[in-house]
Amino acid sequence: MKKLQNALDKGSTLIAAVMCAAMMVILFANVVLRLIPNIGGFKWYMESSQYLNVWSMLIVGICITAKGTHLHVELVDAVAGKNPTLKKLHKVITSAFIFLFYVMVTYSGYQLSTRAKQAVSTMPQFKMGQVYVIFVIAGALCALSALVDLIVTLTEKEEGGAKK
User: Fold this and answer.
1) I need a labelling partner for 98 at 20 to 30 A (CA). Which of 38, 50, 66, 153 fits?
2) Nearest 5°: CA angle at 11, between 91 and 114?
3) Domain housing 30
């Protein structure tokens, strides 16, 4: 499971980085093309960069979930950290709620993407339902990542009375 956890982390980081790089290339190319007479740049540059930015942030949620580096409440972590059993219980409960959250994101994203049939996107050949499908993809992968993190936590052995 640790290998799957690392693969989810590395793969999602790579995909998010490629999306950010594509966004930067599109923005840079549009700036250059606006300076050339009679070309004026892309009409869809702003919308594509917004989509790529949002998509990359949703995808990077997979690696955050895989590594368990999401936001924490320091007081709860400090109290739970004193007792290895309590620490493990806290991590299991947190992972379970994160899993349930991403299941709801996936389901809600599915409902949104199947109902959004309007073509208000300025990008050629895109309907908004196709744009919103990222919530289904990212939500499902984040849920998988949370489930893997939960399994890793449950199967992790305590060494010397404290977890590493």
Assistant:
1) 50
2) 85
3) 2-155
Give which of 150, 141, 139 is closest to 91, Cα–Cα: 150
Asked, for residue 160, whether it belongs to a domain, the answer is: no
Q: What is the mean pLDDT of the chain?
A: 84
Does residue 161 belong to any structural domain of this protein? no
Q: What 3-state DSSP class applies to 164?
A: coil
Provide the CB-side half-sphere exposure for 129 (13 A, CA). Answer: 9
The residue whose two tokens read 């299941």 is: 103
Q: How many domains does the chain have?
A: 1
Give the pLDDT of residue 108: 94
Tokens linked to 44? 């869809």
The tens digit of pLDDT for each residue in 62-77 reads: 888 887 788 778 888 8
Give this prediction's pTM. Answer: 0.76
Residues 6 or more apart whose CB falls under 8 angstroms from that of 152 comprise 1, 2, 5
Contacts of 56 (CB under 8 A, 6+ apart): 15, 16, 17, 19, 20, 23
| DSSP annotation of 35 | H
Residue 164 maps to a domain: no
